[in-house]
Amino acid sequence: MSRDYWEQRYLAEDMPWEKGAPSPGLVDFLAAHRDLTGQTVCVPGCGTGHDAREWAKADFRVYGYDLAPSAIRLSAERTQEAGLKAEFHFGDFLRDEPPFLFDWVFEHTLFCAIDPGERELYVAAALRWLKPGGQYLAVNYLIPDRDGPPFGTTRDELIERFAPHFSLLSEWVPRSYPNRTGLELMMWWRKK
Fold first, then answer.
1. Cβ atoms 64, 49 nearer than 8 A
2. What's the pTM value of the predicted model, to 2 decimals?
3. pLDDT at 147 exceeding the cut of 80
4. In the predicted model, is pLDDT for residue 4 greater than 80?
5. CA separation (Å) from 178 to 23, 30, 92, 182?
6. Residue 134 near residue 105 (C-beta atoms within 8 A)
């Protein structure tokens, strides 16, 4: 899944992941945790920025990253139009060094979008981009598909990959988009 692959998907407007709104699970999480404001959050695979804007509304300092230049442009334009503050950068979360260490990394079905052979790179990146004790919040898409993206994952795989490096604080089935009801699992981790 190269940069060109994702950019071509945006240019062709072939974006089935674009739901026109932030993750319902994230909206509910932020509403229930209003005391977490003011911290830094990295949103890798930010797409057109819906989730990043939701964090910005909750008074976080938000930095979105994506491989597709068109995603970054759309995120920046829509965030400015909404009167919100967030920074968006073209970059490769799996391979780039972070500009600084973040309090939070939030991902909304990014893990399932990358090739399964690169999932160890993903775990290493989450560790690299977070401060000691930093928090990783993920909306995972539990589907069986092997011919993605999206690529399938299971709760067992997520536990196996993340538990050696993170403490699981909570997990739940969130409110989701209609076509994903019951297929998403939110997991809130803290870096060990």
1. yes
2. 0.90
3. no
4. no
5. 11, 20, 30, 9
6. yes
Distance CA 167, CA 117 (A): 24
**Mean pLDDT calculated for residue range 87-96:** 93
- At 11, the pLDDT band (50, 70, 90 cuts) reads low
Phi then psi for 160, rounded to 5 degrees?
A: -60, -40
